[in-house]
Amino acid sequence: MSSRARDNDKPNATNPDSSNLANVVARAADALLTLGDSRGQDLPRTLALLLEVIANEAARTPRFANSLSKALTAAPAPPTDARPHRPHRRAPGCLDPFAVYAAQGEAGLRALLGELSLEQLRDIIAEHGMDHDRLAMKWKDPARVIDRIVERVTARAAKGSAFRTPTSRAGE
């Protein structure tokens, strides 16, 4: 440590902030020592060397010191939502086709889907990821879109059926 740095750390009448700086430096040194006790010497040594290089460069180069000061005192970015706003995101589907299929079967699902508009059907496809080949969202025929929804719902409902016991054998 240079004599100039030691002189700046000593509190005196001409430099009232130096006492505060000395306290901050002492707390940082204590924190690095505590970190060294709990995590080994590599991390605190690296942090101390990094801070030393930054401080020396800031003392040597006023432009770097100004840039560093601006970066460290900049206003924090406004908080963002957990999910970024996507302007072309579709609305959620108006019904859950899996719940309808479980309750009313394929015929009930087809009947309810038949009452929906093409855009509502596309919302369901988008919400449940049923457009694996990226074709269904382009279709103009609602019957074709309904067929895709029913196909995907029945396929997912039957997934893993090879490992289930048939109901006819359940009593045996």
Task: Give an overview of the whole structure.
With 172 residues, this protein is mainly α. 62% of the residues lie in helices and 0% in strands. It folds into two domains: 3-73, no CATH class; 97-160, no CATH class. It has helices spanning 3-9, 17-39, 42-60, 62-73, 97-114, 118-127, 142-158. Helix 5 runs antiparallel to helix 7 and helix 6 runs parallel beside helix 7. The chain is elongated. The protein starts with a helix and ends in a 14-residue tail after the last helix.
Properties at a glance:
2 domains, 62% helix, disordered C terminus, mainly alpha, 172 residues, disordered N terminus, single chain
Brief rundown of the structure:
The chain is built from seven helices and no strands. With 172 residues, the chain is mainly α.
Strand content: under 5%
Low-confidence stretches: 1-14, 168-172
Number of strands: 0
Our Rg estimate from Cα atoms comes to 33 Å
Secondary-structure-derived class: mainly alpha
Shape: elongated
Tally the helices: 7
The overall pLDDT average reads: 82
